[in-house]
Design brief:
Blueprint lengths: L24 H14 L12 E6 L3 H4 L14 H15 L6 E7 L12 E2 L11 E2 L1 H5 L4 E2 L4 H4 L3 H18 L4 E2 L16 H14 L6 E3 L29 H8 L3 E6 L5 H16 L7 E4 L7 E2 L3 E2 L1 H13 L3 E3 L11 H5 L3
Parallel strand pairs: 1-2, 1-8, 2-7, 8-9, 9-12
Antiparallel strand pairs: 3-5, 4-6, 10-11
Helix pairs in contact: 1-7, 3-7, 9-10
């Protein structure tokens, strides 16, 4: 029996995705168990077809208005509305989502993309959203801040060389120049936490389906950005030594599912490069694997800072390219059973 398109549990409020609150785990666990009995939900381990929901960085820092990097999109409400739709999607499809895999951007203050890491000849740090080119580093407009060295156990000379190497490596990928981001997703802070309404939905799914959520932390390496959960932006230092690795275990796990549904923030950055990395793997291995990937297009928004940056067009171009490669662009208005190829994947559930 296919348990798709279930009702939304009564505890969920559409306004809750804009609020910070404590999830009442114990009470919710009782409600989730009752809900599973009411709707005859089986443990996820019994799913005939295994479907993963990869939820990228559904964290307060990106999804709550007023937080450090709220992803407003052009509507001004982007991530708030995305989170609401994502919660509703998970509840409606509680019986067919086998496992939820939330990723979490995870930072500390002294990292290569935060202001404290760089300094100019006047001792000033770059402002948030400054774009630092390789030429900026070569000409000394921005250089490594030596005051950071002792705390991170770095040799200042090696760190300066790595900064130049890093800026060149980023430009050579054709993605972005080094972006100086506001301090965000700070480990231990409220911005790092999942949006409470989504955390609540993930916990509800865990109890109702006996399926432990697989949390994946990324971005804690001070020497590189880590947009994609599958791998860092730069994996070597100026001497060619490895500083970070791809997450091969997660890649293999994702490809073991019959379908992988991807949503989260931001469409132009962490979602886009996670999908890009996954596409690179399936292109080399078997292009038909791309057909297992479903991009929830109205559950994600691009980075837009009015008058500063707008990545909407780049994000849309990326999604068109992913679709051309065989991935599916789907929307919340379409029942999951009606998605291209999904009916066949769900046969026998």
């Amino acid at each position: 029996m296919v348990h798709a398109d279930l009702p939304i549990p009564p505890h969920f409020s559409s306004e809750s995705t804009e609020r910070i609150y404590r999830v009442p785990y114990q009470d919710l666990a009782v409600q989730a168990a009752d809900w599973a009995r009411l709707h005859s939900l089986k443990p996820a381990a019994e799913d005939a077809a295994r479907i993963a929901l990869l939820a990228v960085d559904v964290q307060n820092t990106f999804c709550m208005p007023g937080f450090e990097l709220f992803v407003a999109g052009r509507s001004g409400r982007g991530a708030v509305d995305d989170s609401r739709r994502l919660c509703e999607f998970l509840y409606r499809n509680l019986g067919v989502i086998t496992q939820v895999i939330p990723t979490m951007d995870t930072h500390q203050a002294m990292q290569i993309f935060h202001a404290i890491y760089l300094v100019n000849d006047r001792g000033e740090h770059p402002s948030p959203f400054t774009q630092v080119s390789a030429a900026d580093v070569e000409l000394g407009r921005w250089t490594f801040n030596p005051e950071v060295a002792r705390s991170l156990n770095l040799d200042p000379g090696d760190a300066r060389k790595h900064l130049l190497h890093y800026a060149h490596a980023l430009q050579n990928t054709g993605k972005y120049e080094l972006s100086i981001w506001p301090y965000h997703s700070m480990l231990g802070g409220i911005g790092h936490a999942l949006v409470p309404a989504f955390e609540e939905a993930v916990f509800f799914h865990t109890i109702a389906r006996y399926s432990q959520a697989d949390f994946r932390l990324k971005g804690h390496n001070p020497a590189t950005e880590h947009y994609s959960v599958l791998g860092p932006e730069v994996r070597t230092d100026a001497q060619g030594r490895e500083i970070a690795q791809k997450d091969e275990e997660l890649i293999e796990m994702l490809l073991s599912f019959d379908a992988v549904i991807i949503a989260g923030q931001a469409k132009s950055h962490c979602v886009a490069w996670t999908v890009e990395d996954l596409l690179n793997v399936v292109t080399k291995r078997d292009r038909r694997l791309a057909e297992r990937i479903y991009l929830l297009e109205d559950y994600t928004s691009p980075v837009v800072v009015p008058g500063v940056i707008d990545y909407t067009d780049q994000a849309d171009d990326g999604y068109r390219r992913f679709a051309q490669a065989g991935m599916h662009r789907v929307r919340s208005t379409e029942p999951i059973k009606g998605w291209p190829g999904m009916h066949a994947a769900m046969e026998g559930i």
